[in-house]
Amino acid sequence: MGKLQGKVALVTGSGRGIGRAIALKLASEGARVVVNDLDAEPGDAVAAEIQAMGSDAIAINGSVSEAGFADRFVGAAVEKFGGLDIIVNNAGYTWDSTIQKMTDEQFQAMLDVHLVAPFRILRAAAEPIRIFAKKEAEAGQEVFRKVVNISSIAGLYGNAGQASYSSAKASLVGLTRTLCKEWGRYKVNVNCVAFGLINTRLTQPIEAQQKTIDVAGRDIKVGVQPQMLDAMARMIPLGRGGTPEEAADAVYLFCSPESNYVSGQVLVCGGGLIL
């Protein structure tokens, strides 16, 4: 029996990278998982992977920024699994420019995916959570639920070339601490994990031909200059970037029963990196 046996977890952006690792970690502890990815193929693949582990999962794919997605995502968890215990707002990407070159579209896109989408998902979850919590209280039960919002050290300290991303991630900390106060009466722990350098496709070294990802028809450049990665690695006390699995472990800390009296906190998962 895992520590999350019977729990229902929703993880956005869980078809690849950190999100995939989070979904698999929660499933390994017994959670039933609602997976999501922008693209159907990786989202469906992770759901199948979880099912092959002996747990249960469904995939609700599509952009978290789309109108109506939040209701569809939360509704699927309640309808399919009859519960709503863990929400991890992980989906996101970076679209960088210095401020003089940054367009309104770039700035708004980062707000939409990193701040507006989590807000909408949490708003959609508010009424089901209230109903579940009321029934549990009436039965004399104390059941804790978990929200983990994913921020970044860029949101805590800023980062050159990331005015939009940093602004959205900083605002997510404010949303976290506000919901901690609003949802404490429902026994919901609302916390935030801020990642440092985690090795994913978004932080891979840029080679001769820079790679791109397709986001809503936009070709977004991904990767980091090798010399910058080397410099960051030297700044990290543990000497390297983290793995997606190590990132998932940090999120799991806030999903586990051991965090039942921890709320409104920001945990930096960055190997000791403090900018």
Automatic annotation (TrEMBL):
Q: Name one GO biological process term.
A: monocarboxylic acid metabolic process
Q: Coiled-coil annotation: which residues?
A: none
Per the UniProt record, the source organism is Rhodopseudomonas pentothenatexigens
PANTHER family reported in the protein's UniProt record: 3-OXOACYL-(ACYL-CARRIER-PROTEIN) REDUCTASE, 3-OXOACYL-[ACYL-CARRIER-PROTEIN] REDUCTASE FABG
Which Pfam families did the record assign?
Answer: adh_short, adh_short_C2
Name under which the protein is recorded: 3-oxoacyl-[acyl-carrier protein] reductase
Question: Which stretches are transmembrane?
Answer: none
Its family remark reads: Belongs to the short-chain dehydrogenases/reductases (SDR) family.
- Domain Ketoreductase span(s) in chain numbering: 7-186
Q: Which InterPro entries match?
A: KR_dom (IPR057326), NAD(P)-bd_dom_sf (IPR036291), Sc_DH/Rdtase_CS (IPR020904), SDR (IPR050259), SDR_fam (IPR002347)
